[in-house]
User: What shape does this take?
Amino acid sequence: MSIHKPIKVVTTHQLKEMKAKGEKIAMLTAYDYSMAKIIDQAGIDIILVGDSASNVMAGNETTLPITLDHMIWHATSVVKAVKRAFVVVDVPFGSYQGNSSEALRSCVRIMKESGAHAVKMEGGLEIKESVQRVLSAGIPVMGHLGLTPQSIYKYGTYSTRAKEEEEAQKLLEDAALLTALGCFGMVLEKIPADLAKKAAESVKIPIIGIGAGPDADGQVLVLHDMLGITQDFKPRFLRQYADLNKIMTEAFENYVSDIKSKSFPNESESY
Ligand code: KIV
Assistant: This one.
């Protein structure tokens, strides 16, 4: 069976229409088949195969170590599970910043090998040629401004970005540039709420916020954070929708205990 399924309910056109109608867009990360299936069935509009896989799946401190091959592996698993959502894949650090040919090669591999629908790249003016080249190949591109985790060592901290006038102005200019180039949307991460509101009002493409206040056109969270699996990451913007760490720990402890006490498996669980 082909990995390229013909019918996908959510499209870039629909996402832009949702913004125009004032309907908020729900986006969540996923990295594997089983989770993506549940998320898709719950009605999520966009699934992001985020390079946050480097943190939550591989245990790295930053997103820098994850490779293009790793991202394609995760994306392929997610795409197999999805029937409705629009699947966006992060282009990992070091596979698009060099030049536009490298960016195109990386994005073509993502699209061809995973069957995903779009890519996401971090940055504005600095990556203009790469964004242009990838878009000209017919690949939908999502931008990512504000806190850009792939540049963590440039800034040295994960604190709120664009609080100063100069950085805020550059962000608005970059948002306008990405829109003019033809991006279908962008993520704005960890910036003041009033700046995100200004950005959302100034462009026609959907702005998806994470730590960017209520006036973005949609919201995204990292799956493991919103499910309460992650223990040591509790920024103000994170709403935790479950305490899976507690639930899973109890399940694992009960399993160990049942085996040790010889109560599992019982007669009805045996052949
Ligand atoms: O990699 C990721 O999960 C992301 C989100 C934080 C937007 O880029």
Remarks:
- Residues 29, 48, 50-52, 90, 187, 189, 210, 220, 222 surround 3-methyl-2-oxobutanoic acid (CB under 6 Å).
- The beta strands are 25-29, 46-49, 86-90, 118-122, 141-146, 185-189, 207-210, 218-221.
